[in-house]
Design goal:
The complex is a heterodimer of chains A (199) and B (199).
Chain A: H1 12-24, H2 35-51, H3 59-65, E1 66-70, E2 78-84, E3 101-102, E4 108-118, E5 121-133, E6 142-147, E7 161-164, E8 172-173, H4 179-188
Helix pairs in contact in A: 2-4
Chain B: E1 4-7, H1 9-18, E2 25-30, H2 34-48, E3 57-61, H3 64-73, E4 79-83, H4 89-97, E5 108-113, H5 114-123, H6 125-131, E6 135-138, H7 146-160, H8 164-172, H9 180-188
Parallel strand pairs in B: 1-6, 2-5, 2-6, 3-4, 4-5
Helix pairs in contact in B: 1-2, 3-4, 4-5, 7-9
Classes of the chains: A alpha+beta (199), B alpha/beta (199).
Chain lengths: 199, 199
């Protein structure tokens, strides 16, 4: 095995991936002060998508599908999960569209992110996943943007923020997306740029 | 008041912006902080509409006379109205008698505390008939219910083939992969304290 393929050593690949990791995380903090404010920004963006008919949902679906759930231990900084739509790994055809965020092109959007809120520091983004999947697997099965919790393994360097281009086991590096940008991306983008695929 | 619909500000904003009936009226009942809620609604509406045409306006009125003047001066666009404590049942009765002065082309949203809404209903029956079923109560941020949390956990357990206890044990011993699914999992278990984040 060449040096660059050896896992865990501080070799050229590790150095390159660490540099990529640092560069990928070079984004200004675009988080509001509190988890509740982040929830409200998400609610607004989803309602706007409904209003613009980018989502085929009714307006009442947003408050049914968007949740902010506390999940820390009492006494410590509060951790919240902000979730939108049911978690769905089967990516099957939706039975009741009102139970999911469904785009005008049939794509189904769901997401989950975790933030930590404390009195003495800004809201901290811990992890996220934002996915749009296509039940008929066209043009691809799904696209998912992930942000991993910060791990300690060199295997994860360069890939803390990554995108799955239609396969759970393929990861491509991604910039760390501010959550609202990630939401808007899976709502408005990840679409064919032309009506007829080139191949 | 009968026929009250629960909604968040975003949903109500969409309803207001998309209302097509002539002279549409809405009542949003709040438990205090009416001015703050009115400001939030104005922000939600402004986020939905393109910045052409009359902007959504927000006013506080102390008398029926002042209300009539505002309605006349701002016949177009959304008008969000709160009332001061000086706006007594007599003022509502005056509005009712002179209701033609309050006809507008844009939507009118009354943001009222419950006692003010009851005064309207009791002393301004004709205005109440204009409002009809458009009476709303604000809902705040909602967390996943126990059943919704369990549904998500079931999906996560099936996906990873792990139990909740095993996930906590692996996290405590530093052996849990950093994937975002596990961040959500720990948070839903109330163990968000185990997440690494920026530290």
């Amino acid at each position: 095995m060449s040096d660059d393929r050896r896992v865990g050593s501080d070799n050229a690949l590790t150095v390159a991936m660490r540099a990529l990791q640092l560069r990928g995380e070079e984004v200004p903090s675009l988080l509001p002060s509190t988890a509740k404010q982040l929830f409200q920004l998400f609610s607004r963006a989803l309602h706007k998508a409904v209003h613009e008919e980018v989502l085929i949902n009714g307006t009442y679906d947003v408050s049914r599908l968007l949740r902010l759930t506390p999940g820390g231990r009492s006494g410590g900084p509060e951790v919240f999960a902000l979730t939108g739509g049911p978690k769905e790994f089967s990516r099957a055809t939706v039975q009741r569209p009102a139970d999911h965020f469904v785009r005008d092109d049939g794509g189904v959007v769901h997401f989950s992110l975790e933030v930590r809120e404390s009195h003495d520091s800004p809201l901290e983004l811990i992890a996220y996943n934002f996915e749009v999947y296509f039940p008929d697997r066209q043009p691809i099965p799904f696209v998912r943007f992930d942000l991993n919790d910060r791990g300690h393994s060199n295997d994860d360097l360069g890939l803390r923020a990554h995108v799955h281009p239609g396969h759970d086991d393929i990861q491509l590096p991604s910039p760390l997306l501010p959550p609202l940008e990630a939401l808007k991306f899976v709502l408005y983008r990840c679409r064919l740029r032309r009506d007829t695929p080139r191949s | 008041m009968p026929g009250v619909t629960a909604a968040d500000l975003g949903e109500l904003a969409v309803r207001v912006v998309e209302s097509v009936s002539p002279n549409p009226w809405f009542v949003l009942m709040v438990e205090g902080h009416a001015a703050e809620v009115a400001s939030g609604l104005q922000e939600e509406i402004s986020a939905l509409v393109v910045p052409i045409g009359p902007p959504a306006r927000r006013v506080s009125v102390a008398s029926s006379r002042e209300f009539a003047r505002v309605a006349r001066d701002h016949a177009l666009g959304v008008l969000i109205v709160t009332t001061s404590p000086a706006f007594t049942p007599t003022e509502w009765a005056n509005v009712d008698v002179n209701r033609s002065q309050f006809q507008r082309d844009g939507a009118t949203v009354l943001v009222l505390e419950e006692d003010a809404a009851e005064q309207l209903e009791n002393t301004a029956p004709n205005l109440a008939s204009w409002i009809g079923g458009s009476i709303w109560r604000l809902v705040g941020v909602r967390a996943l219910s126990a059943a919704e949390t369990e549904q998500r956990l079931v999906v996560l357990r099936q996906r990873a083939g792990l139990s909740d206890d095993e996930v906590v044990r692996r996290s405590e011993s530093g052996r849990l992969p950093p994937d975002p699914e596990f961040a959500e999992w720990l948070t839903l278990l109330g163990r968000g304290d185990l997440l690494v984040g920026r530290s």
